[in-house]
Input
Amino acid sequence: MYLSCNQESVIFQLRDISKLRRGAAPALALSGLMAVGGCTRTDETAMRAHLGQWFALGQTMSFDAKWRCAAGSFRLVDTQVASALPVVRNAPRAVSVLLDRGAVALEQSGVPPNQSLINMVNANHDLGSKMRRAGIDARDCMDATTESAFSYALGDPGGLLAYDHQLGALILMDRRRGILVVTMGGGA
Output
């Protein structure tokens, strides 16, 4: 998981924990949590750079990131997937490729990504559940634009479902509308 902070990093060096007074440790922990609270899961520039290896991204429609989630929707210049991202046609093969390569796209003719996601859960419950959580847990980062694009992409029978284990990102392509939606939830 990538975290980026908009504030200076704070590093606490404790030479001798036994010298801390009784109330100092909780205060120190609280200040550390406050510092992390200013961090986000990723940023738009990093997300676009990472996705750019697989997809021809156009204009960003919407993007938001917080510590526990990130969600973005992007126009596509082209709906082709670059060869760097393996595209497979069934869930058991997708599980195998994902475990081997860390990223995969599942494209099942006439099957919307919502059903492909169910097929992934059935093929490998742990991996499929991580993919599902990447979408569900990202709701706090979805504005109306991304939420709508996410909903449409899930139901597009010509759509594509992908997952990037490194980012913990669920990726949906709505080919009819030329939109890519990416979600990263806290549990992914």
Remarks:
- The longest strand covers residues 56-65.
- Residues 81 and 171 are 12 Å apart (CA to CA).
